Amino acid sequence: MRNFKSSKSWRLVLLFSVFALVVVACGGGAAEEEVVEEAAPEVTAAPATTAAAAEPAAPSGPSGTYKMAIFSEPQTQNFWDFLDGENDVWTSYAMTSQATSLFSVSYPNYNLVANMAAGLVESSTDNGDGTYTYVVPMKEGWTWSDGSPITANDMVFTYNTVKDLGLQQNWVSGYKIPAVADDGTVGQGVVGIVANSDYEVAITFNYDPGLSDWQYGVAQVSIMPESYWAQYATDRETLIDADGLSAPVASAYVFEAVEAGAFTLWGYDSDTMYFGGETTIYSSGTRIVNDNGVAPAVDESFGDTSGDSFTYSSGPFVGNVEFTLYGDQDAAYLAFQNGEVNFVLNPLGLKRNLYNELARNSDIELVSNFSNGYRYLAFNTRVFPGSNKAFRQAVSCMVDKDFVINNVLQGVALRMDGQMPAALTAWVAPTQGIQAECEGMGGAERYDKAVAVLQAGGWTATDWGLAPQSADDRATPPSNLKGPNGEVAPENMLLYAPGAGYDPLRATFSLYIADWMQQLGFDAVAQPTNFSVIVDKVFTPENCQEWYFYMLGWGLSAYPDHPVDFFASKYDTCDGGYNTPGFNNAEYDALADQFGAAKSVSEAVGIMNQMEAILYEEMPYLVLFTTPILEAYAGVAYPFTDVLAGLSNLGGLAGSVKLSD
pTM above 0.70? Predict the structure, then answer.
């Protein structure tokens, strides 16, 4: 069995943020998504009695139950619905592996590997008419859990369903459905997918795609079983409303029981072919070997398989995987301390004080990993005042991230300015623009600079106020402040952010940011808000102009092309994408297209640095901070624990975890 997941069958799965990743417990296919990293509802903790009772394992399968806590309820068991709109991280954790892909990524080394493809096809055929086709042979003998073969026809079916039914969000960006401008101009994208035979698929683009759009894009897009879903693929509503509890999977686990408000239980499928084998991890390579007597035998190597390595056995080693719902983070960790669960799935990781407390318990194992994500403030550039660049720059200057992190949060967070986490060293661009100009300034200097930015941008006031006169002082706001065209900013502009019970770091930042806006003369109000409410506000087309500011977080994918999805105008949320600010910049869009065609990492990094320079100037997001991912587990053993973004990012490694004796 292969214990890896695709790098991004859909680049961004909401909840964002993240792109937490969607992990398939085990088997030939898995999907990794970028997802929003938050989502805890502020509700009463579920009592321990709501935990699912462990079901007996299938006679021919493993026994025991791996128990994990979650603290927000999964929204659907239908994978189509999940990627179409209900794609929060909590849904991803409890979602069975209802999809597969051509390519994938091994963990923890983030190495590209073949999944259902017979090999890594990395060159296309130039058709001579401006189109390019990748012809991909597929492995034979693999089946969905209902016994139907996994074939090229499944990918054709999935693509046609996405295109013909007008699916949204991850489906659109994953299959690179071309955008069509008002003048009829067709953007870059996939223009056709056909099955040359049952085990050969041809994917045609109207441009020559590079790493981002092929190896880490369409080659890892989710493929669904036509045998089951064709009956529902009559229209979008019928498809996403269908019950996914009985949907076939490409893994060893199926849904066994789901009780709303209480738990989700996976059960081992005794007829599965997705089990066993060994994976050897090298610094820049991976070897996968499996001959379990049921699935096609596998002995494949990818990348550089020389030098130091470690090998782990693939499971599954447990008969059931249980996701028990608790009302909030505190209740989930209390259950962990009481021995009710082995692990708490949490894209934010442990709070530092609890981590230190747990360190005193010798029965608990602790782990710390670098984050692959960030928390941010978004401006709605479609509505005033967020539509004004000088306003966005002035607010960004007023926000003293170092003060909040070091003086208020006692250094538990790590400041970020740009789009790339520090762990991706080759991709990190130097801080530029207004953030660089305001670096190291005190409160009075920041105020004066912010006022100067507004004035240079054409703003007027009858009185420009007064900068704070001491470290404990607040500024006197400008009077009768108006935009370049005489616009007056609305009153009571809400800044939506998760509450303190979910993430005290963002809750604290939101209070300070709203106050700094008020000192600058804008009536901003921090509004602690349930995650699902924020998502409905900012990630649905019908509400795309109904907000001013919000704070969330992103968990990112293996290949850092997220700035394309977040800021290219073709992915505007008003049209079903992930560009929540509605950022629209022709120069940026052109660079985003170039990035999608980059054939080497060095070329991609150079283009991305140019894209970041525009973002530093335009400021549709103010990136704020990240944190180390601190986690704890008990009663189990994992094949590895050192992995970018932590064990939660891999769904708790349900497919390879072992219960301790």
Answer: yes
